Amino acid sequence: MSEQDLNPAFSIEKIYVKDLSLEVPHAPAIFLEREQPEIDLQLATAGQALEDGVFEAVITVTVTAKLGEKVMFLVEAAQAGIFQIRNVPEEDISGILAVACPNILFPYARETVSDVVTRAGFPPVLLTPINFESLYAQQMAAQDGDATH
User: Fold this and answer.
1) Where are the alpha helices (DSSP H) in 52-119?
2) What is the rounded CA–CA span in Å between residue 30 and residue 24?
3) What share of the chain is helix, strand, coil (3-state, %, to 5)?
4) Is residue 112 within 8 Å of 78, Cβ to Cβ?
5) Burial category of 117 from C-beta neighbours within 10 Å (exposed 0-12, middle 13-18, buried 19 and up)
6) % the chain with pLDDT above 70
7) Angstrom distance (rounded) from CA 77 to CA 113
């Protein structure tokens, strides 16, 4: 094995939409509403090994727009990617899957959500950037707290 074979390696193999759903439960009447909806954003990340050195990372974005209790639209998009991660310590893999991969995938998820909302007949929803490093740190702190109880 050459020294190059032992260097840490990270590459994108494929980026794709894994799952996508749109609901406009009150169409067509909802299009007559003139108020601005309240937008709720939920975000989840996941990662799994596919084979040695190859991983799938997924971010799932759920956007719900409501007028009071009435749902204008609900979009759920699971943006995924296959990444090659080699010669990285095992304990660092979860951080890469929870931070580096979502940072790459998020702009694609943002575009997918905006496109679907526009195609549904609504003004585009532009998701603000997410600090995945901070989210990961919060998750790790919560897990550490759980482990000590």
Assistant:
1) 90-95, 101-119
2) 8
3) 35, 40, 25
4) no
5) buried
6) 94
7) 7
How large is the angle between the packed helices 101-119 and 132-147, nearest 10 degrees?
Answer: 120
Residues paired with residue 81 on neighbouring β-strands, in sequence order: 15, 57
d(CA 24, CA 14): 30
Element (H, E) at 142: helix 132-147
Half-sphere exposure of 84 (CA within 13 A, CB side): 7
Contact 13/83 with Cβ under 8 angstroms? yes
Q: What is the pLDDT of residues 16-62, one digit of tens each?
A: 999 999 999 999 999 998 889 999 999 999 999 999 999 999 999 99
Q: Give tens-digit pLDDT for 56-105.
A: 999 999 999 999 999 999 999 999 999 999 999 999 999 999 999 999 99
Which domains, and CATH codes, for the chain?
A: 3-142 (3.10.420.10)
**DSSP run (H or E) holding 145:** helix 132-147
Residue type, 47: G
